[in-house]
Write a structure and sequence with these properties.
Strand order of the largest sheet: 2-1-3-4-5-6-7
Number of helices: 24
Structural class: alpha/beta
Strand content: 5-15%
CATH class of the largest domain: Alpha Beta
Number of strands: 17
Radius of gyration: 23 Å
CATH superfamily of the largest domain: Aldolase class I
Helix content: 40-55%
Length: about 575
């Protein structure tokens, strides 16, 4: 079926099925795999907005198709697609290898078609992207719906896109031109009005549920996100989505928030097709207490049945937690103190005491929080290997303090594979104690296909080398895994599986280092591939721990498809 625009989501590494790569604990705390197959929520927003303007838009998640079927040929799929324009996301930098390779395939299969890239990393590296002849346009910014509509109008009507805001393009002489970066909307009421309903209708239209799945295994665990804002109020040093990054690279001086009504409406829409958790992204307090309480009031009024996951950027009053419990019974709460050490935490951009953190944990559990997820990180300013191990000791203290409450889930992971370009740490490395190893887009692309995740890391710190980050990460994850078994927050079987995976990965990382030290290593690496693939395929215990009970989902999906198809 011919469409006007196809939105393609690539795997992190395009030919990951042929490459020999030990991915390590890179994506353990997110639903997607090390191929980062979850496409950005902006895909659904763009599709809805352009469809409202009369264009036919199709989403194809190449990454999830390739993961689900070892025989799936992405190039054959791309060849079969019929569209004058293809959009490829390069949002987070982990997609850098796959995005360029998919752009090359599109141009090879459809030389007359136009190729557009967008997303945070596209906005950051737009000049380098235009050096690739396969790429015709880069649309910059966090709100590309209207610029994309304007660009589609120009392409369809064969006009030069001189007036399209935020656009970088190549004119008829082959010269790269940068239009003014002027579209930064302060009102989001015109977008994301019914994007989930539009997505379900598209699944029916193209008879292609497989290409719309957000990540591998989504049908089994259909967690879905609700966006509260574009921009951020926080300045976490390692984040490419911080307030400073938005201001300096995406021209957004302050965060803009969706209305409480829109947030609650999304949650209710999701309930129609999924019994899975609804993750409301961003701390509701970013927009102030009135906003937070209004969102919760509307969720309570609408009676959303799905378990709701809420996010905190810092400790909160007990009264707000009580309102969360009333609005979203059995709610799940997430907070990321990053380190047990308030000094390290402050250096990373979060400033609160352990006493305040512990009070919020206690209050959340007291009001009936179904699960309290607490995330720590490795690779922070002022953090040493000993400091990381002291964080594990603090986890022991928390589990003891809360008497092994199974609702308290503690996690630790390395900052990997990249310190985000645009983050304060990347842009001001000396100030924050970082040494940046890669600067260009192509350097990051090549790093993604390195034989081990150690060589993908684009940074070291004043306090930890690459090797120390790797060694410390494996040891910390192993110790925390044992602590969870000790306190019974995970089963012994789960703990044994986690220990087996970490020990095998750590040993393999050392073997890869030995192979690389011997010079001509390609043949030896190839011989290791079956073992490495087996380690990469081990179940990720931490990801399993993050999953919430969802019950039966398939019949509900089918029922919602019928409901939207018939308008009932």
């Amino acid at each position: 079926m011919s469409v006007d625009l196809v939105l393609l989501h690539p795997p992190s590494v395009y030919d990951f099925r042929q490459k020999t790569i030990l991915y390590g604990p890179v994506s353990d705390l997110i639903p997607s795999s090390s191929m980062f197959e979850m496409y950005p929520i902006g895909f659904t927003s763009i599709a809805e907005y352009l469809e409202g303007a009369g264009y036919r838009v199709r989403i194809v998640n190449l990454a999830v198709r390739m993961l689900n079927d070892s025989k799936f040929d992405a190039e054959v799929m791309i060849k079969r697609l019929r569209a004058p324009v293809f959009g490829i996301d390069l949002h987070w930098l982990v997609s850098a290898h796959g995005a360029i390779e998919v752009a090359r395939i599109v141009k090879r299969c459809h030389p007359e078609a136009k190729v557009i890239l967008g997303g945070f990393s596209s906005s950051y590296f737009y000049r380098e992207l235009m050096e690739y002849p396969e790429i015709d346009y880069v649309v910059r910014g966090d709100s590309t719906e209207e610029p994309l509509k304007n660009l589609m109008d120009c392409i369809v009507n064969k006009r030069q896109p001189e007036e399209v805001p935020n656009l970088v393009w190549r004119d008829e002489k082959g010269e790269v031109r940068e239009n003014p970066f002027s579209h930064v909307p302060a009102d989001l009421s015109h977008v994301m009005f019914s994007h989930y309903a539009n997505t379900v209708r598209s699944v029916i239209r193209y008879r292609d549920l497989a290409s719309y799945a957000p990540f591998k295994g989504w049908a089994r665990y259909p967690i879905t996100a609700v966006l509260t804002c574009r921009g951020c109020t926080q300045n976490c040093v390692v984040c490419g989505g911080s307030a400073a990054a938005f201001r300096n690279f995406y021209h957004r001086d302050k965060a803009v928030f969706r209305s409480p009504k829109s947030v609650a409406r999304d949650a209710k829409q999701i309930e129609r097709f999924s019994s899975g958790p609804v993750f409301i992204l961003g701390d509701l307090l970013q927009a102030g207490e009135d906003y937070a309480y209004e969102v919760l009031r509307r969720l309570e009024k609408d009676g959303v049945k799905n378990q709701v996951i809420l996010e905190l950027f810092s400790p909160v009053p007990a009264d707000l937690l009580r309102q969360m419990s009333r609005a979203c019974p059995n709610f799940c709460l997430e907070i990321s103190p990053d380190s047990h050490d308030p000094q390290v935490r402050r250096a990373a951009g979060r400033n609160y005491s352990n006493e305040d953190l512990e009070q919020t944990l206690a209050d959340a559990l007291d009001v009936g929080c179904g699960r309290m997820d607490v995330f720590f990180m490795i690779g922070l300013p002022q953090q040493t290997p000993k400091s990381v191990m002291d964080t594990i000791d603090y986890c022991d203290f928390l589990l003891q303090k809360f008497k092994g409450d199974k609702r308290l889930s503690l996690f630790i992971a390395p900052l990997s594979p990249f310190l985000d370009p645009g983050s304060l740490g990347f842009e001001q490395p000396q100030r924050h104690g970082y040494r940046i190893l890669f600067r260009t887009l192509e350097e990051h692309r090549q790093a993604l296909v390195a034989p081990s995740w150690k060589y993908s890391l684009n940074y070291e710190t004043k306090w930890m080398t690459r090797q120390q980050i790797v060694d410390t990460a494996y040891e910390a994850i192993l110790r925390l895994n044992r602590l969870k078994a000790k306190y019974g927050t995970i089963s012994q079987q789960m703990a044994d599986a986690g220990e087996q995976r970490i020990k095998a990965a750590r040993e393999m990382a050392q073997r890869i280092d030995d192979v690389l030290s011997r010079g001509d290593y390609q043949e030896e690496l190839s011989r290791l591939k079956p073992e490495i693939d087996q380690i990469n395929a081990f179940p990720v215990v931490e990801r399993k721990q993050l999953e919430l009970p969802v019950g039966v989902v398939k019949l509900k999906i089918l029922r919602s498809l019928w409901s939207w198809a018939t308008g009932r």
